[in-house]
Amino acid sequence: MWILAIVLFSVVVALLSYMDMRKPKNYPPGPKWLPILGSALTVSSLRKQTGYLYRATICLAESYGPIVGLKVGKDRQVVCCGYNAIKEMLTKEEFDGRPQGPFYETRTWGTRRGLLLTDEEFWVEQRRFVLRHLREFGFGKRTMAELVQEEAVQLVEDFKEKIKKSKDGKGEIMEMRDAFSVGVLNTLWSMMASKRYNSEDKELKDLQALLTELFANIDMVGALFSQFPFLRYIAPEASGYKTFVNIHQQVWKFLRAELDSHKDTFILNQPRDLMDVYLQMLHSDDKKESYSESQLLAICMDMFMAGSETTSKSLGFGFLYLLLNPEVQKKAQEEIDRVVGRDRLPTLNDRPNMPYLEALVLESVRVFMGRTFSIPHRALKDTTLQGYHIPKDTMVIANFAALLNDDDVWDHPDRFCPDRFIGCDGKLIVPDEYLPFGYGKHRCMGQTLARSNIFLFSACLLQNFDFSVPAGQAPPSTLGVDGVTPSPGEFSAYVSLRS
C-alpha cells in the first residue's frame, strides 16, 4: 500500500513540476523555466555577471528579442526592451493593472493602497482627487515655482555657509549624493502637509538613510519574499522580508505622527494643504468607500518615498557627471551668466531662454532613468503584446535602460552630453524615444515638479559655485548602486565660490 502511495505522490509531483515548467502558448520567448524557480537562476546569473538587473534583461533581449518572457518564482514577467513594445504596453488599457502579492500589499497594511501600486476605478478616483487638490496648493502653478525657488535659495545659502566655515573660506569638500534630498522633499511636502524640514533634521536624515538602504535591497519587479512567498516564514531575514517590514513601519510611524498633528489642528473648510483637504473629505457625507485614513497615509508614503527619491537621485547623477565633464559645467555657467547674470538668482521664468540648462535637465534624467525599470503593470485580462499572448495577471515591465541607452537612438549613450537635445537652430529637441516619465494614463504625475526642481537647483548652484574632483582623490565611479531606484555611490566634490 505504501508503495502505491509513493508512486502516486511521485506522479503528482512530476505532473505539477511539468505544469510549472510549461509556458503559455505563444508566450514571449525567453530562457527555460525550472520547477518552482522558473527562470530565476538564469536572471540571477546574468545579474551577477553584469552587476545590474536592467543589464541582465538587456542581455536576454539580445538573445530573445525586444520582449522577454520570464517566470521568477510564482510571478510571470514580461520585460519590454524596445520602443514599440514599451509604447504599446504603456498605452494599452489591458495593461493598466498593478501587480498583486505580498511585496505590493505588505507595504500598506496587507492590502493595496496609495497611488503608485493601485489600479482600476480605485486608482482613477484617488489620482483625480489628489491631482485636483495639489493644483490648488501650487502643483504646476506659480506658487509651485515659488516653493522651488525658496528651496533653491536655501540650498545656495547652505552651501555658502559650509564654505564660509572652511579653512580658507573659498571652498569645501562636500558629500553630494544626498545633498538635494531634503530640498526636493520640501517642495512636495509644503503642498502635502504645509511643512518644510531643516537639512540637519536628525529624524528625517535617519529615515532617509533607511529608505536608501531599502531601495538598494529591493527591485522594481519585487523581492524574494514576494516571488517565493513561503520564504517570509522560513527565512524572513535572508529573503528581505523582515527589513522591508521594519523600515516601512518606521515610515508609517513618521507619517502617522504628521497626520495626528494635522488632525489636532484641522479646521473644517479651512484647508492648508492636501492632507487637510483629504481629512475634510473624510468628514463629508459624500465620502466614498475608497477614502480612508489608511489610504491618506499610503498616498503620503508614495509621495514621500517616490516623489522625492527619483528627483534627488537625478540631481545626484547630474552633478556626478558634471564633476567628470567640466566642459559641460562651464557651458552651462556661460549660459547662466549671459541670460541671468550674477546679480540675481535664476528663476523658472528664465527657462525659455536657457535651452542648454533645459538640455542638462533632460540629460540628468536620462542618465538616472537609463538605469531603471518602469513601475510594473499587470495584464487585467488575457491579451496580446507585439503579437505575443500575455495571460491575465502577468506582470509587464518597461526596461527604460534599454530605451534610453539605445545606440540606434542616442549617439554615444554612455556619455553625458546635453547637446544631444539641442538642434542646429539652438532650440531644444526631444526625441520620441525619450520616455523617462512614462506615457499614457500612467505618466508620472510629478513630471512638472521634478523638472522644475532639477532645473532651478542646477541653475542656482552652477551660477554660484564651481564643482570639481577633490585634490588627491580619484574621479568618482559612475557605476552607481543597483536597486528599486538606482543611486549614485557616495561621492564628494570640492565646491568653491565662483570668482
Automatic annotation (TrEMBL):
GO cellular component terms given for this protein: cytoplasm
Sorted UniProt keywords: Heme, Iron, Metal-binding, Monooxygenase, Oxidoreductase, Signal
Signal peptide: 1-17
GO MF, any single term: oxidoreductase activity, acting on paired donors, with incorporation or reduction of molecular oxygen, reduced flavin or flavoprotein as one donor, and incorporation of one atom of oxygen
Gene3D superfamilies in alphabetical order: Cytochrome P450 (1.10.630.10)
Ligand binding (heme): 444
Listed cofactors: heme
One Gene Ontology biological process: xenobiotic metabolic process
PROSITE patterns tied to this protein: CYTOCHROME_P450 (PS00086)
InterPro entries: Cyt_P450, Cyt_P450_CS, Cyt_P450_E_grp-I, Cyt_P450_sf, Cytochrome_P450_fam2
A Pfam family per the record: p450
Protein family (similarity comment): Belongs to the cytochrome P450 family.
PANTHER family per record: CYTOCHROME P450 15A1, CYTOCHROME P450 508A4-RELATED
Protein name, per record: Probable cytochrome P450 303a1
Primary gene name: LOC112692669
